[in-house]
Amino acid sequence: MTDVIILDACSLLAFIYNEDGADVVTDILKQAEDSDLVVLINKVNLYEVYYDLVRSSGKEQAEEFYDIFQKLPIEVINSISDEVMREGSYLKKAYRMSLADSIALGEALARNAAVLTADHHEFDPVEQNERIKFIWIR
Predict the structure, then answer these.
(1) CA distance 84 to 63
(2) At 135, phi and psi to the nearest 5?
(3) Alpha-carbon gap, residue 122 to 18, rounded angstroms
(4) Residue 82: alpha-carbon gap to chain centroid
(5) With contact defined as beta carbons under 8 Å apart, do 37 and 5 qualify?
(6) Of 32, 52, 42, whose CA–CA distance to 7 is shortest?
(7) DSSP class of residue 18?
(8) What is the DSSP string of 3-31?
(9) Which H or E run contains 63?
(10) Which residue from 18, 45, 10 is spatially nearest to 122, judged by alpha carbons?
(11) Which pLDDT tens digits describe the chain residue by residue (138 residues)?
(12) What is the pLDDT of residue 41?
């Protein structure tokens, strides 16, 4: 296992909604509590999660989640570094992915981290062609 893991929105949403793969996310978070494993999420990816909750369940549910989220062993990256901007922009163009997904992958490249995800649709081609490590939750 790698020392740093980047969460994308779909992995955190699987955890929240207890979907397939939620157990993998739970195990990663337990490891982060019990070891040197660092789990990160960029604020843009966290925005996606919060938005999904507002859209599907309302602002009150989103706020409840955010209160719980702040107690989890997940560090929020509050900015986009120059390296993430450069790497993410290349990936966004090359693979026609969303801005948030390109930022998550840019973070992984900048930090030599793995991406925790279920998003095969977006990331299978990236895994085949780039030097990014993925941990698939399903």
Answers:
(1) 28
(2) -120, 115
(3) 21
(4) 19
(5) yes
(6) 42
(7) T
(8) SEEEE-HHHHHHHHTT-TTHHHHHHHHHH
(9) helix 59-69
(10) 10
(11) 459 999 999 999 999 999 999 999 999 999 999 999 999 999 999 999 999 999 999 999 999 999 999 999 999 999 999 999 999 999 999 999 999 999 999 999 999 999 999 999 999 999 999 999 999 999
(12) 98
Instruction: Tell me how far CA of residue 121 lies from CA of 1, 25, 27, 54, 101, in angstroms.
Output: 23, 19, 24, 24, 12
CATH number of the domain bearing residue 58: 3.40.50.1010
Range(s) of the domain holding residue 37: 4-136
Amino acid making up residue 99: L
Residues in the chain, overall count? 138
Q: Name the residue with tokens 């702040």.
A: 70
Phi and psi, residue 72, nearest 5°: -80, 155
pLDDT at 32: 98
Identify the pLDDT of residue 2: 55
Q: Are 114 and 2 in contact (CB under 8 A)?
A: yes
- 63 Cβ partners below 8 Å, 6+ apart? none
d(CA 105, CA 79): 14
Domain total of the chain: 1
Which pair of structure tokens corresponds to residue 71? Answer: 């107690």
